[in-house]
Structures are given as structure tokens and as C-alpha cells.
Amino acid sequence: MMQKKVPQLMKKMIKKNNGTFKKCFAQRLRELRKENGITQAGLAERMNVSRTCIANWESSERIPEVAAITYLAKLFKVPVDYLCGRTDERYRVKLLDNIDFDLTKLNGKGIEMLCEYYDYLVSSEKYRAK
User: Fold this and answer.
1) Residue 76 CA: distances (Å) to CA of 82, 83, 103
2) Is 98 left (phi over 0), alpha (psi -120 to 50) or beta?
């Protein structure tokens, strides 16, 4: 992934929030990276960017492109909205009005198993929505 220009919509959002988006994103990225025991260099290698690029994201100097934000959310198993500061809900998933899972009750292995089971269900004709 290469650093690209920030889409216009994201620029407007950042300007509207007086930079709080950048600060929140930077803080949450740093926290998630450290919680997962990943160095800036290690994350940079996974994403095919420089360590300086990661450092710039974590210091609010720059923000990544949307595809990179999506990748980071998937890597750290959090919603994009959490990573971008639009919600503080890291693991709660509301599927339907009457189904609500609080994933904070699961450890990392439990969340991983849930994701694997979800992938299985989605890949199966028998369970996939039409």
C-alpha cells in the first residue's frame, strides 16, 4: 500500500472536526498496535509502507488512505468506526434489533474462532443469505 492523497470527503470530515479525527485515529492506532505487541517496523512491514509512515500516522502528521484504515481495522479486529473515533464500541456487534453480541466477553482466541465460524457460514450455500 502506498500513501495516497486523502479523499475529499475525508478532508472535509477532518476539517469539520478540527483535527480530532486525526488525533483520535493516531491514539487508537498506537494503542492497538502496542496491545497486539507489534512494533512500528513490524506493522510497516505487514502493510508494505515505511516505519516513518506508521510514525507519521501515530503522531497525527498524516492519515492513511481508506484502504489502509480498513486493513488496520481488520488486522486489529475492531470496527473502522472505532479506529476513526466515531464510536467507542470496540467489539459490540448489533446484528438485528433483537440480536446484540458483546464481544468484550471473548478473548482474542474466542474472537478469532467466531470470525472463522462466520467465514465458514458465509462460504456455505446452506447458510448464506440469498
Assistant:
1) 11, 9, 14
2) alpha
pLDDT digits (tens, 9 = 90+) for 16-41: 554 677 888 999 999 999 999 999 99
CB-CB contact of 63 with 31 (8 Å)? no
State the Cα–Cα distance between residues 85 and 104, nearest whole angstrom: 18
Cα distance between residue 76 and residue 33, in whole Å = 8
Mean pLDDT of 52-65: 92
What residues does 101 pair with on adjacent strands? 93
Q: End-to-end distance of the chain based on CA atoms, in angstroms?
A: 34
| Residue type (1 letter), 124 | S
